[in-house]
Design brief:
The protein has 303 residues and is an alpha/beta fold. Helix content is 38%, strand content 16%. It has two domains: 89 residues, Rossmann fold (3-Layer(aba) Sandwich); 135 residues, Rossmann fold. It has a six-stranded parallel sheet. The protein has a three-stranded parallel sheet with strand order 3-2-4, covered by helices on one side. Strands 9-10 form a two-stranded antiparallel sheet. Helix 1 packs parallel to helix 10 and helix 2 packs across helix 10. The structure holds guanine. The site of guanine has 9 residues, from strand 4 and helix 6. Homodimer. One of its GO terms (molecular function) is methenyltetrahydrofolate cyclohydrolase activity. InterPro entries: Aminoacid_DH-like_N_sf, NAD(P)-bd_dom_sf, THF_DH/CycHdrlase, THF_DH/CycHdrlase_cat_dom, THF_DH/CycHdrlase_CS, THF_DH/CycHdrlase_NAD-bd_dom. Catalyzes the oxidation of 5,10-methylenetetrahydrofolate to 5,10-methenyltetrahydrofolate and then the hydrolysis of 5,10-methenyltetrahydrofolate to 10-formyltetrahydrofolate.
Length: 303
């Protein structure tokens, strides 16, 4: 186990490589299931509308299923689908025995309540880990389908042998998808946990003063290059969850993906840091696959 040294050289936390390793492990499990004549895990994704970021994420999730040998189904709807229609689609997937788990890509159009949609998903099939049943079970320390991005962060820290016990972790951002659940997981009495966690958000006073006391910084606010070098102490471990598209005429796509951390400024000060892209993002997909495998095997909820 390593602790954050007071050094200026840093190690890149390679989420792309780690996610590949996890996918190889999952593919091996699928082969075993096949050899035993079991049911191949099947993930479905619902995508509403044409948001560029969401299209990319969902495409990558479907490709990842193919890569590990899962079945996958993509259900696309225009952004004028009514809430009632979408809830009916969710109910169909709930009832479909061929589907082990499914996700509804967020954000949804303003006329649809994401909360209602999430609450309609059967907790056993909620491989995003967003349903209040899964969140509640996570908080209570019961077996649950854990949200993919937070568990991906924990997995990265674990696989890089980073000591978390007793460390001060400052999380910036309190979203239901990342900030809130990662702060809960890292505080738990688990192998990669036992952190003293401070959860900061838009109303936090003296943010930089707090982040400068962090051994581990998790930036999950969705504001490009928000965390600057003056906000981190030498030797800190920096986890960047941001993926904001910023216009860039020099790119064929017309945009660059920016993290929440000013990488050029912060990296030389850190001991470990995740890049964007290639850090947390690929781990989210790997953990989604792992949740789908768990759902298919009935590991959390008996089938
Ligand atoms: N939008 C941004 N991140 C996520 C995610 O992890 N799952 C879903 N369903 N939507 C998202």
């Amino acid at each position: 186990m390593t602790t954050a040294p007071e050094a200026t050289s840093y190690q890149l936390i390679d989420g792309k490589k780690t996610a590949e390793e996890i996918k190889v492990e999952i593919a091996a499990e699928v082969e075993k299931i096949k050899a035993l004549g079991g049911k191949i895990p099947h993930l479905a994704a619902i995508l509403v509308g044409h948001d560029g970021g969401s299209e990319t994420y969902v495409r990558n999730k479907v490709l990842a299923c193919e890569r590990v040998g899962f079945g996958s189904t993509l259900l696309r709807y225009e952004d004028d689908i009514s809430e009632a229609e979408l809830l009916a689609k969710v109910e169909e997937l709930n009832q479909d025995a061929s589907i082990d788990g499914f996700i509804v890509q967020l954000p949804l159009p303003a006329h649809i309540s994401a909360d209602k949609v999430i609450e309609t998903i059967r907790p056993e099939k909620d491989v995003d880990g967003f349903h209040p049943m899964n969140i509640g079970r996570m908080v209570a320390g019961l077996p649950a389908l854990l949200p993919a991005t937070p568990s991906g962060i924990v997995e990265l820290l674990s696989r890089y042998g980073i000591e978390t016990s007793g460390q001060h972790c400052v999380v910036i951002g309190r979203s239901n998808i990342v900030g809130t659940p990662v702060s809960i997981l890292l505080a738990k009495n688990l192998d990669t946990g036992n952190c003293t966690v401070t959860l900061c958000h838009s109303r936090t006073r003296n943010l930089a003063e707090i982040t400068r006391t962090a051994d581990i910084v998790v930036a999950a606010i969705g504001r490009p290059e928000f965390v600057t070098a003056d906000m981190v102490r030498p030797g800190a471990i920096v986890i960047d969850v941001g993926t904001t598209r910023v216009a860039d005429a020099s790119k064929k796509s017309g945009f660059t993906l920016k993290g929440d951390v000013d990488f050029a400024g912060v990296a030389p000060k850190s001991s470990y840091i995740t890049p964007v892209p290639g850090g947390v993002g690929p781990m989210t997909i790997a953990m989604l696959l792992l949740n789908t495998l768990r759902a298919a095997k009935g590991e959390i909820y008996a089938r």
